[in-house]
């Protein structure tokens, strides 16, 4: 499993798998009230591909994440940062800005 590790100033170390990006994309899509078929159309993907990514069954390539980001009106950095925060919160932590 591919993993990226993020280190926080408070010493907290969080490892996020690349399949978690897909789960966060699904969360963000629902927060923005975008249907899978609409996201798929705007990102030039099939609805099945979006579903596989969101359910963690398919690891999206960088250009696919970029297409999805544009389709949702966010940056790739926002998806990555959001995914990290989302994963941290799922683990029961809260990130606090100093």
Question: What are the defining features of this structure?
Answer:
elongated, mainly alpha, two-stranded antiparallel ribbon, 98 residues
What is the structure about, briefly put?
57% of the residues lie in helices and 10% in strands. It contains five helices and two strands, in the order ββααααα.
What does this structure look like?
This protein has five helices and two strands; from the N terminus they run E-E-H-H-H-H-H. By secondary structure, it is mainly alpha-helical. Strands 1-2 form a two-stranded antiparallel sheet. Helix 1 packs across helix 3, helix 2 (36-43) crosses helix 3 (47-54) and helix 2 packs across helix 4 (62-72).
N-to-C order of helices and strands = EEHHHHH
Give the number of DSSP strands.
Answer: 2
Shape: elongated
Estimated helix fraction: 55-70%
Q: Structural class, judged by helices and strands?
A: mainly alpha
| Beta-strand content estimate | 5-15%
Task: Summarize model confidence as the mean pLDDT.
Answer: 82
Instruction: Trace the largest sheet across and list its strands.
Output: 1-2
Radius of gyration, Cα only, in angstroms?
14 Å
Figure out the total of helices: 5
What characterizes the major β-sheet? Answer: 2 strands, antiparallel
- Which residue ranges are poorly predicted, with pLDDT under 50 across at least 5 consecutive positions? none
End-to-end separation: 33 Å
Show the helix and strand layout.
Blueprint: E1 3-7, E2 13-17, H1 18-31, H2 36-43, H3 47-54, H4 62-72, H5 76-90
Antiparallel strand pairs: 1-2
Helix pairs in contact: 1-3, 1-5, 2-3, 2-4
